[in-house]
Amino acid sequence: MRILTFNVHGCLGLDFRRSEERIGMRIAELEPDIALLQELDVGRSRSRGRDQAALIAKLLNFDSHFHPAMRWHDEHYGNAILSRWPVTPRRAAGLPSEHAFLFRESRAAQWVEVATPAGPLQLINTHLGVGRHERLEQAQALVGRDWLGAIRGSEPTLLLGDLNSLPGSGPHALLAGSLDDLVKQFLGRHLATFPALWPLVTLDHVFGNARIHVTRVDVPGCWTRAVVSDHLPVVMDFEVVEGSVCASAG
Prior knowledge:
Blueprint: E1 2-7, H1 20-30, E2 34-42, H2 52-60, E3 63-72, E4 75-83, E5 87-95, E6 107-116, E7 119-127, H3 132-142, E8 157-162, H4 170-176, E9 180-181, H5 182-187, E10 204-208, E11 212-218, H6 223-226, E12 234-242, E13 245-247
Parallel strand pairs: 1-2, 7-8
Antiparallel strand pairs: 1-12, 2-4, 3-4, 5-6, 6-7, 8-10, 9-10, 11-12, 12-13
Helix pairs in contact: 1-2, 3-4
């Protein structure tokens, strides 16, 4: 199976061109089975009232499950999980947000179960805040009883997203106490994801439990393609471990 996490920046590229089609084409090039996206507009005037999650999903021929982190009347902004396989929503809710003066943005997470050919897969998609204290509170919520605490350890589980947190920071350490940092575990190092044209820091992460066996990780980027967003996507190939045998989805 192949999964990716990608902060698409409202489909606004570094060339100041807003294009859902360009983001959809970029994701299609990477050939994921599941795409976890952050910073999507639905019905917002700045993106011509478009449902960005639905448009990208249509380009991929995937199902789309969007959850708004912020609402202004009919304008929504948030995250989405796109999948080629059937999805059952399990939970979608806001996370603790401090609403600092300079960064008035609510944060949220969504948890779904995906019916993959290798069996049910638990997925959490999230985008944490920029304030240090709110990120800690948000990570604490995610490892608590309503999110990771509600998933049995025997179930294959992944948590992905833009954590706005460096490896080793408080929020990262909290999540790494409940799940494995799969990129670091597989490569022995982290991959920079931001800013897209000159990636210097790792803000986008992939965590999983022992049921996930990673076979490949990449942060694909080049000058002509990195311009579509301010982040680079993280792409991971994996299998679901059943005992000592890997059940690959092919």
